């Protein structure tokens, strides 16, 4: 066992802002069907950071799973917000560590809270638990940056 070193990043609170969950069973005849459908669900995620005047900031994450209800099984939409604190007196704001904690770690933490909500909620559904798959967070940020770049070119 190893003693942990606590991070300077602190999750103050998490709020579930929106939660939609529906079930469409037509077309499902076996547990094997369910697994195949779960694996084929389209998943989309969006996120935003909002600074405040202090060392606190807000991170908003929206997760959509099979939200167009095109594939049988579950359709989910969860929108959550984390309130974080990252004291600038403990880490230099321009450092890579600060940016990594503020950007990547916070989005991961909010996604994990939403992942838990989805898992618990679907555990009581007729098709069993749905687990949000692991996410390539680097790719998610790259897509967000590319979208922002295109938006800036247009506007």
UniProtKB/TrEMBL annotation:
Q: Which InterPro entries match?
A: SecB-like_sf
Name by which UniProt lists this protein: Preprotein translocase subunit SecB
């Amino acid at each position: 066992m190893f003693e942990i070193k606590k991070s300077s990043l602190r999750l103050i609170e998490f709020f579930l802002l929106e939660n939609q969950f529906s079930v469409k069973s037509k077309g499902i005849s076996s547990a094997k069907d369910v697994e195949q459908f779960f694996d084929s669900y389209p998943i989309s995620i969006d996120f935003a950071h909002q600074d405040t005047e202090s060392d606190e900031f807000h991170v908003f994450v929206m997760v959509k799973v099979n939200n167009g209800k095109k594939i049988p099984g579950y359709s989910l939409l969860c929108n959550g917000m984390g309130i974080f604190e990252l004291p600038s007196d403990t880490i230099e704001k321009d450092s890579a560590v600060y940016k990594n904690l503020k950007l990547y770690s916070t989005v991961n933490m909010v996604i994990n809270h939403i992942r838990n909500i989805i898992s618990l909620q679907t555990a009581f559904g007729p098709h069993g638990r749905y687990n949000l798959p692991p996410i390539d967070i680097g790719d998610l940020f790259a897509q967000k940056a590319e979208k922002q770049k295109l938006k800036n070119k247009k506007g």
